[in-house]
Amino acid sequence: MKERAYKFRFYPTTDQENLLRRTMGCVRLVYNKALGLRTKGWYERQERIGYSQTSSLLTEWKKEEDLDFLNEVSCVPLQQCLRHLQTAFTNFWAKRAKYPNFKKKRNGGSAEFTKSAFKWRDGKLFLAKCKEPLNIVWSRFLPQDSTPSTVTIKLDPSGRWFVSILVKDPTVKPLPKTDKKVGIDVGITSLITTSNGEKVGNPKQFNRLYKKLRRKQKALSRKTKGSNNRYKASLEVAKVHAQIKDARKDLLHKLTTKLVRDNDLIAIEDLAIRNMLKNHKLARSISDASWGEFNRQLEYKCEWYGKELVKIDRYFPSSKRCGNCGYIVDKLPLNIREWECPECGTNHDRDINASQNILAAGLAVSVCGASIRPEESKSRKATALKQKSKS
What we know:
The protein is α+β, with helices and mostly antiparallel strands. It contains eleven helices and 13 strands.
């Protein structure tokens, strides 16, 4: 049985909003204090301060007179934020993520409540120290007889309140087999191109609302810092960003769900997106296309529904390789969208040819269970030759 989070919007009462804002403020304070102490301990004494030490410090902070307000909110979100900080450091030391950042008030906030800090009664959610249930907009039903294990309250920068309810979902089951396989090449002009020859256009949500966003940001820049008008203008900017984010995510969810339902095997490239974003000419377009989010959704949905996702090596020459005879051209600039193979004379659409090569490589990976890289790049070959010559 898979764990699944259901996200809903809710509208807190005045008392609930005051309590939740205080809770998020305390969570932000504790997280930043712990992060500052851990950073200082490392740079001054080369000491790695762990979760148990920060948890003991939290107990001491609550006893201090100027931090007495920490006792006015539930202690669970405060402990949870320290666990999240520990996870962030674990990922950093394992080189899976960057160094943790300090939390900022303008980014909204979140608070996580475990079972001891909320009550689930007759389909209503009561948070700790709240007398009334949350006024949740139930846009869909939770699985029958399911009990939440974790509840996360989030305030986004545009001022919207969301609750995420984590439950064990018995409805997540493997989908029926379709005996179909597809290779996917992601792009900018077309969001994706499949090995079947289908192209899904890129709506470019950022460009669609760019003029509106620019106008709101100009209005924000003219407001006096610290004024109430500046705060209102910042909310207007955040609302435009929320529009872009929601439209982008809605499209990706519909697209990935369709791909998982229709195919038993999906082959994609394991792209180094972080490195690609260093190209300042393409960074905004790549970020707007959300290739990383697309791959993330495919990954967990394939796991949920019993489908196979194959990631082929990022150095595989999917675009430069002729899908008919296997010839690889030396150079293929991004502005060339069609090319003719000098070996066999086959005319290729760049994206369709790439997706078909990705599918072929993905099938080979699925059968052999190994990475496919028939021809290494020249730079890698040169590095290997240098190492051999030195030895």
